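Input record (one chain):
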Amino acid sequence: MWLKLIEHHWITLHGLTIFAGLAVYVIGSHTLHQRRHPASAVAWIITLVLVPYIALPLYLMFGSRKVGVHAPVAPLPALAGACGLATPDAATPGAGVRHLAAALGLDQPAPYAQLNVHKDGAAALRALRTGIEGAQHTLDVCTFILGDDALGEEIMQALMARARAGVAVRLLIDGIGIYLGGHPGLARLREAGVAVELFVPPLHSPLRGRTNLRNHRKMVLADGQWFWCGGRNLAAEYFEGGGGLASEPPWVDLSFDLRGALTAQAQQRFVLDWDFAVAAESTRAATLPAPAHLPARVNGAAVAQLIPSGPDQSDDTVYAVLVASCFAARQRIAIATPYFVPDPTLMMALTLAARRGVAVDLLLPAHSNHRIADVARHRSLRELCAAGARVWFLPGMIHAKAVVIDADLALVGSANLDARSLFLNYELMVAFYDPVDVERFAAWLARQRADAAPYRAQPASLVREIAEGLVLWVAFQL
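The corresponding structure, as predicted from the sequence alone:
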């Protein structure tokens, strides 16, 4: 009798736990507008039913994708008027993306000048050194990783030197990324006058349980006039090889620097992230003024557009731009990414583009630094090849993140083509619309493909299909 009573109470308690977990999931998803793809939703529901005692704490820790959304950096009409920009017509380069970006509440395109697309790590490092050393008033650095190596030490010394020279220096590092780089000592920086903040440190996160939302953005800004951006973290392998050793070649990566009004928008984006990291009042972001030095008109000037994405945006902006642009592509889609684990909608956009005759070229490393991503990608690669796309494997590690579509759009920045980057991380891409500069990025991709080998899709065995499905279900849904 007692055994039956205990069993009955246990079943009742177990059922209540399942019910509570599902209720938290449904209410949280509805009230916080946590839109999910079907695979992610099914994964959470099944896990909450089968192992609620494990799944519910995990959901409370990792289940939310969006946080309080920042106000736009400047009201769209005001910024458009300041720049002299009108609603683009169909003949304007990148018109479709510009319309979509406006609908997503993003800043209007802004002019830029002196675009320097870095040929390799050495060129990127020269530009970075010049920009840091030239800062006279302010210097802001945002990175996911700061390496505990020779390159990281050089950057730290440069920041300390500028701070001692009277420059206001701020360094923002992701709270998890700091450990991935070897956790360089930051006390010296603070003692030299560098303001240092960790973005969402795991042990005292301002996100209240959402510790898996990482800041993956990379940018360096000097005096509000110079902007350095791309996929490179501040560690040796991204510039000059592992620890500077000749036996460890540098990763292939893509970065750029420029000047102009676009820098002012990037500066304000940094301020938003910085304020969030230091738990500043959320109203401060809404009162930031539009950059005062934006030109009255930009007729004939090259313009580009910041595409920030992440929990601070109400929509998945980079993902939306990618999907819409792939569906609209007419001649080419050229992509470089270290990790390729697209969701079904993005995959459909790419395969349909290939089937209708668009030249789709995807450049990947033969072996990336994340083996799970390498296992998960083959299902999508087989589907792409079957649709007529071309996949290229570079023998070394490529960490670049770039998408070139037709002649009027190049997306370059920090976002990978996987679920974590597109739906969880704080990312920053820059959309370039000028046909000349778009072609410069396309030429960079073409040079990398010259050293790559074509991927040959092989039929997958049942065991491999099951393994790939499990990896996709478990590893890419949190």
